[in-house]
Write a structure and sequence with these properties.
This protein is 53% helix and 10% strand. It has 250 residues and is α+β, with helices and mostly antiparallel strands. It folds into two domains: 124 residues, 2-Layer Sandwich (Beta Polymerase, domain 2), CATH 3.30.460; 92 residues, no CATH class. A five-stranded mixed β-sheet has the order 3-4-2-1-5.
Length: 250
């Protein structure tokens, strides 16, 4: 089975990410797609294992195998957590619905370290651009500010919201280079300080719920195996718990 076939035939969840999910899209913005596929369990019984992720088959498309996705989400990887909270879901099946219903199980105060560490890496790249070219890549500066906002608000409320809402125009002004670099630096510093303070009183748990996520993954693997080994038999179905508000299905 090719990587493209895994994505085509076994995707359990796919969404739009990037500017279109963040509420920062403008004319000509790309459509970034992210997804999660569940590789058939028997593929893991071979010497050559299925891939942990697949780039494509479309442009601006990237997918993770379910286990890898869960591993990264439990580590509070910003890109993965935000994927699971996209407001623009394009496809979801029963297993994908339960994955979405587990969103809060992945969230913890560990997000403070991972988000801020990721932001620090992006900030160093911006500083290097300023030293070399006299200005940062303004689009990247905008997205770094957005990430810091998301981190602060997650720690404050316990909920991850990636749409920028009323901050859209202010952030787009940064993208257009209408805000001085010193002004952007001050904004970044303030957001970082606010996130640091929020981390000390955050309603989030200290660690994610590994046991709950592992139980889900075990049942998904078992169901996949039984569907191949006993295609005509009744077998365990992954229990679906749809979160409040629901998620649309293609």
């Amino acid at each position: 089975m090719t990587p493209a076939e895994l994505v085509r035939d076994h995707t359990i969840y796919s969404c739009v990410m990037g500017s279109r999910a963040f509420g920062l899209a403008t004319e000509g913005s790309d459509t970034d797609r992210r997804g999660v596929f569940l590789a058939p369990t028997p593929l893991f019984w071979c010497f050559e294992k299925p891939p942990a992720h697949v780039e494509g088959p479309g442009e601006e498309q990237f997918s993770w195998e379910l286990e890898r996705f869960c591993e990264l989400a439990l580590r509070a990887n910003p890109n993965v957590l935000e994927c699971l909270h996209s407001p623009v879901v394009e496809h979801i099946d029963a297993t994908g619905r339960e994955l979405v219903s587990l969103r809060e199980a992945f969230l913890s105060r560990q997000a403070h370290q991972t988000f801020v560490r990721y932001a620090g890496g992006q900030r160093r790249k911006l500083d290097a651009d300023v030293r070399r070219y006299g200005a940062p890549r303004w689009k990247h500066a905008m997205h770094l500010l957005r990430l810091l906002m998301s981190c602060r608000d997650l720690l404050r409320t316990g909920e991850l919201t990636i749409h920028v809402g009323d901050e859209r125009e202010r952030l787009l002004a940064v993208k257009r280079g209408e805000v001085s670099w010193s002004g952007v630096e001050s904004w970044m510093a303030r957001l970082t300080e606010e996130a640091d303070r929020a981390s000390t009183t955050s309603p989030l748990p200290a660690a994610p719920d590994h046991a709950r996520v592992e139980d889900f993954l075990r049942r998904a693997r078992r169901s996949s195996a039984l569907s191949v080994l006993q295609p005509d038999a009744d077998h365990e179905v992954v229990e679906v718990v749809v979160p409040a508000g629901g998620v649309g299905e293609t």
